[in-house]
Amino acid sequence: MEFRCLLFVLISSSVVLITQSDTTTKDPDWSDIVVTMVGREVTLPCVDWPLTGSVSINWKMKSPSVDHWKLVLSANERQQFSGAASKASMRLVDSNFQETGDFSLLFIPKMEDKGRYSCLIIQEQKKLREKIILLAVLTVSIFPSATLPQHSTLRLMAEVSPASAVSEVTWLSPGGKPLRLARRSGGGVAKLPQIRLTDQGVYICQVYPRGNSSSPMFPFTVDLRVDGMNVASFTNISHSAQISMASLTQTPLTLACPPMQGDYVLLYWKPPDSRNINTTPLVYGYDRWRDRTEQSKTHAQLSLDGPLSTPKEGFFSFLLSPGLNDGGLYMCEVFLNDNVFSQWTLLSILQVKARHSPSALVLTCQYTERSQVKRVVWSHQNQSRTLKWSSSGPGHLSTEVPLSPTQDTAGNYTCTMLLRNGQAVKAVYTVKLPPKGGENQTVQLGMAGWMWFRCFLGPHLQRVHRSQEESRPEGRAGRRGWTYQPKSLEKHTDSILGWASALWSLSYYSSPLLLCYLYRKGYICSSKLVPVSQYVGSVMVCLLGVAFLRGWGRWRNSEYQQFISILEETRKNHTPSNKKKLACYDFDFSHWPADFSWEEVSNPKLLSKAGVSLLKPEPKLRGAADSVLNSLRTLPCHIVSFLIAHSFGRRILYPGSVYLLQRAMRPMLQQGQARLIEECEGQRNKLVACDGNEIDTMFVDRRREEGLHGQTLVICCEGNAGFYEVGCMNTPLEGGYSVLGWNHPGFAGSTGVPFPQNEANAMDVVIQFAVHKLGFQLSDIMVYAWSIGGFTASWAVMSYPEIQALVLDASFDDLLPLALKVMPDSWRPLVTHTVRQYMNLNSAEQLCKYQGPVLLIRRTKDEIITTTGPEDIMSNRGNNLLLKLLQFRYPKVMTDDGVRAIRAWLAASNHVEEAAVYSSYEVDDDWCVSVLQSYKTERDVFFPWSVGEDMTPEGRRQLALFLARKYMRNFDSTHCTPLPYSEFAAPWGL
């Protein structure tokens, strides 16, 4: 047995292959797939037991274009070749094949050698075994070459023939990061635009066999070198006709780009009325292959959201909400391979400002990029009235209105800017008549004061999402939005209050150390505290004044006034139409009205005070007197454990609940949320759990779309620093599933603290919302969790056993071993008590209560849930999770022999070693499926099963390995790498 295992490893190391059983492929013509390249020596493996007697081997080949088999090599036990090899390079790996059992074929293939190969073993003139192997040939092309000048575009092309042999071809960067591909049948193209010196290195092409496989089957390396002395010059430039346009300030407009698919886009800008033609800074750049964005801080209001803009597909246009100084010349350049397509847009901006002089109201019309302006005029709605205007300088035109407007002087004053191409844009300022009575004036002042007060207390507005029903300018498609642009006063005051909030949080988290320092220095005394309190009071008064000014700035912003009016109306009348209007705004979630409450569908009297039920640690049996004495003796330990858990303990365990981290991640979270709402048409909802915590959720509905998975809802549970905005929701979204994501208590928009009880309460209201509000059946719900999210996911399937399936990625069985590894050994009793009493994340125990399909995904380079280090794969706690699950479900199979076999398989660090272990135990997948299916059909019982009770040790080992491979898949990555959809699959079930 050891000899055969060693032989298999040697064969596997000479060629990258993967064996697919008949149960995992739809085509019964082959069982193995081997991928190679033209001119590279390849081995077609065919291994059996050492044989006695008359033995012969026949190798035959069938090309994809023909229907008959052709003999390519034949030999017998006397090492005589009864059929000459069809190629000079073709031979058997071991001429002494009868004694070793190695009948493998070795040769150097050409493109025409692709196809099916049959290894037919004959003993005593009888057919003993036949194995069909599909040989696929990989072709890799590199353009323009493997040595490139800087800023050029590299194209990596890979194609496998026949295409039916593989499910996916990927490219990895030198750092191991997957590159984006334009997929084709049997392969794909990866591009690297704007090559830099940092991009040079070894790129790896990985070929995955047909069917889902967790490891690459065939690697091919490309050593890319960048010539740092040369820079690529793009001479093939196509210019479109220049566009001339005008707009009002803060009015969204489209900056067009060439209407063709490109690799990346660069937008340059020449400031308005600039005489220096060389001043053209880059204000925006986007590389769709790397999904990399560069944006100038001077154009923060610019976004790649123009009409028909699908940046990830290579079609670009920009959306700009311009200020007065954002006019000028915009040059959009779209790059495709070695070609450049350019579109220039000359933009003039117009705005009207009003100021009071001692004798009149002065209306000033300001405009920029005067080079294309033909004339600017003032007019009044009373056309018979002639206005006088004056200019204080280029781009300024003013007219005056008396301070006490009359019926003749009140009304609309219009500043019209006419361009040389005939386009006109108008800015209107309305002068109102003074109120006739003091009562009306009082009412108006009261309404204005109430609006200011609402703006003062209102939430921070971040983004405006365009509604689905709103008309698109210039035929614009899709839900796009723009970042809210506060006026100068609101912007600066909000920045001051933000810094004050950050400093307060920093002081709060460092308060224990700060208080100790002040105490040692003698500052905690009345003589010192009184002056400090005066300073603190002065600062608070100043901050209150800043908050008043921020409210004034918001009150002067019509966009914010519109938002606050919609928010107040929705609070008073939470109808679907009002909810739809409010959903067009992204603001502080604490002000969002509740959309669903746990109490709507459940009875609070049926719950304990804490909330839903959890599995508790089994109490130790003691006598009454002993129990009282023990409680008194352990009281200090209880107090210390409580303080640890409620101070730094839960913040270390859930760093995503720390405000400073959330503040640092806020731009990323806002960008992710905008993508979910505007590109995926996500619906944000606030749920109120049974403990009163408010849970921030995002739902993407795919039930109306064509596809296989839209009717299945995937509920995603994030990690300890994960948020649905940038977390694991993206994986099932790529597969077309309906997805419901939620944030832990204390994360982003969710309130509370992430203790196990609060986590379970939050998960419960999420499931209730999915069933009662979204209309999904439990049998249509799949739960997908990453890392620490496995606790809430396992609680969900334990409490709702009708749930369809569970997928756990990079999860662990129990928190305690991971907590002990980072704490001193002397703290072991305290850590154990703290975890068991306050942070008992017993995922394995909960998982064993579930009867449905389960898939575990183990990261082979996981550095977080290993107890020794990422290099020791056996210390990965995902192994323990698998063993505990299998030992509960199949106790008769998981004997010592079965456990040893699984541990040998778990110790394999790559796919070659896994295949070697699996083959060494001669696992017959068909036999394993038939045994399990027969047991289920005859008994149809809940787990645990007694299958394997009457089996031989060899049969139990085979069945144990089969179950392990079905319940767990390996992903060659670290803990925090996003899981690609190719690795996501529904769990296996009979």
UniProtKB/TrEMBL annotation:
The family database entries (SUPFAM superfamilies) matched by this protein are listed as:
alpha/beta-Hydrolases, Immunoglobulin
List the SMART domains hit by this protein, alphabetically.
Answer: IG
- Keywords from the named record: Hydrolase, Lipid metabolism, Signal
Where does the record locate the signal sequence feature? 1-21
Q: Which GO terms describe its molecular function?
A: hydrolase activity; MHC class II protein binding; protein tyrosine kinase binding
Q: What's this protein's family per the entry?
A: Belongs to the AB hydrolase superfamily. ABHD16 family.
**What's the name of the protein?**
Ig-like domain-containing protein
